[in-house]
Structures are given as structure tokens and as C-alpha cells.
Amino acid sequence: MNHIAPSLSPLDSEFSGIALGKVERGIAGIMAAIEDGMYQSSMKARLVSLEGQKADIVARLGEAPPDVPNVHPDIASHYRRNVERFTEALDDRTVARKQPKLYAPLSEELFAP
Length: 113
Known about the structure:
This protein is mostly helical. It has helices at residues 10-35, 41-63, 75-91, 93-98, 100-110; strands at 3-5, 68-70.
């Protein structure tokens, strides 16, 4: 089974995504108000604060290492063992006699001329 090992917990990345969206909406709202002519000096301070929050969130998300597959450290030997068992099963004629319906299509595909 192959899982992805998250670099941030799902809650952290979800919270960061929600917070980033909220900050971006706040910045857009202030910009829209300024464009509509409703500028006040307090808006500048709030805009600076929101831009700082956005930079912090983006930096935190950017520092997180990319998600990497969470692979069992001994996967190669597990795979090798499974291939060996499969090869033995194909070589074992008793398997063909016990399970002819399963073995026949497989052997036709593998050993077709």
C-alpha cells in the first residue's frame, strides 16, 4: 500500500489554506474600497498587516517539504519475495491442476508465442 506522508498535518495545511484565503479576501476588499474612493489612513495600516500575514503564511507553506510517498523501507525484498512465490506457483504444475480456470488465461498471456 502506498500512502503519501504529509509534510504538514492535514489540519495545518487546511488551516493555512483557509487563513490565506481570508487574508487575500481582506486585501481585495481594502483594494476595492480604495478604488471606490473610500480611502482612510487606517486602511493603510490594515493593508500592511494583511500583507505581512500573507507573507508569513506563504513562507510557511513554501518551507514545507513536498509530499513524498511513504514506502516501506524493505519494499524491494517484499517485491522480490512475491515475484519468487509467483514464479514458483507458475512452475508448480499442481497449481495448474488445482486451479485450471485461473492458471490457463494467465499462462496463455505469459507464454504466448
